[in-house]
Amino acid sequence: MNPSIAHPTPSEHAVFYSGYLERVRSETHPIETLAAETRFWSDRIGSLGPSMAGFAYAPGKWTLTELTRHLADTEAVFCYRLLSALRGETQALPGFDEKAYQNRATADGDTLQAAMKSLKAQRLSWEALVSTVRSDQETRTVVANGHSVSVRALVWMVCGHARHHREVVERLYFTHPDFPAA
Predict the structure, then answer these.
(1) Chain segment 132-143, per-residue pLDDT in tens
(2) Residue 6: helix, strand or coil by DSSP?
(3) 2 in a domain, yes or no?
(4) What is the pLDDT of residue 3?
(5) Domain range spanning residue 116?
(6) CA–CA separation, 157 vs 150, rounded Å?
(7) Residue 180 — very low, low, confident or very high, per pLDDT cuts 50/70/90?
(8) Cα–Cα dist 161/75, whole Å
(9) 3-state class of 25 per DSSP?
(10) What is the DSSP string of 77-104?
(11) CA nearest 37: which of 119, 98, 117?
(12) Is the pLDDT score of 126 beyond 80?
């Protein structure tokens, strides 16, 4: 197990991901970093009732259920990209439309409990894969969504993306005057 994974250089990922990566730049251990994000999601989101799970802070924004599903789906895609980079995939991987994925999950009657179950399972899978990364593998790359991305960038992007959404929840959902009372 690699106790820490170096942070990527800017050339190892698309510019779009820089904001996520900056959120976790001071962290040194990705598994511990994502475990803290998982504890937040389990403790603060996982037990919400239907009115809170269905709350969105503004029209057109995702509910907490939808946001949880977004995390699970995005992390599944990024875990596959990570596996592909580690195994030397030479085929370019497609992008994915997060809004289309979410629209389909919502149309299919997604629930917070189902989204939380998926998120927890996905994070266990991610942790198992990340725990196998050796330092000599960190700079392996794969092309995803038209951009080359390294193993270490993918690892830290998952952490930064999770941190970003926790910050959004704390800043825009939990403090909103219309957020339903427990």
Answers:
(1) 999 999 999 999
(2) coil
(3) no
(4) 63
(5) 10-173
(6) 10
(7) confident
(8) 9
(9) coil
(10) HHHHHHHHHHTT--SPBP---HHHHHHH
(11) 119
(12) yes
| 4 within a domain of the structure (yes/no) | no
Q: Tokens for 46?
A: 């996982």
Residue 147 sits at φ, ψ, to 5 deg, of -130, 140
Q: Is residue 3 part of a domain?
A: no
46-94 pLDDT, tens digit per residue, is 989 988 999 999 999 999 999 999 999 999 999 999 999 999 999 999 9
Could you tell me if 116 and 45 are in contact, meaning their C-beta atoms sit under 8 angstroms apart?
yes
- Residue linked to tokens 């998120």: 119
The pTM score is 0.94
Percentage of the chain exceeding pLDDT 70: 98
Counting the structural domains of the chain, the total is 1
Q: How far apart are CA 113 and CA 119, in angstroms?
A: 10
Cβ atoms of 103 and 79 closer than 8 Å: no
Read off the CATH number of the domain in which 54 is found: 1.20.120.450
